[in-house]
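Below is a typical protein record.
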Amino acid sequence: MNHTFSAPVTAAQRQRDTLLGALVGLARSTVNEPKTEDTDRILATGLRLAADPEATESALLRMTGIVEAEKHRVAPNCAACAMPCGNTSNYDLARLWGAPAEICALKVRLLSAVCVLAGQKTTAQIQKEICDDLFVLAEDWDAELLLSIVTRAEGLCVQQLFQKQKSISCLKTNLFSQNLFTNAPQKTII
């Protein structure tokens, strides 16, 4: 999966940014309200779709609707609030693309790491990291603070990759051992 993001040029890329902004809004809504049983799955599915360079505008639009519906399930009173605080507002990615180059680069790295994590086997640690990192995308933090968050997220990606490779290696070893012993010619002991 290509996790390289850039300022939108096409209609599908603009819709991708809208979806990503809605995902940030959903993640931020879970700060003060409990998640539903579907929230983490919707976040991960939305991130995987947003990271797919072949995703169609219509698929991105449908997913944005699902994310918005979930956000209203998580924080139902926010949709009709007479005095919105902005805590659950969608993030406008134009802010990211218009940020200073160093901040933009760090946030793109963070977004890429979050998309990689969304493609991993779900654990409580990964779910928390995804929500925390999406929350950070909408914050106006300096490069030093942002770098520490990016480093943590990328470290978790590397850790997950290492665990996956280790599991594959163990599986291959076990399959090889089983195959070696089950297909080995049997010796007759007299």
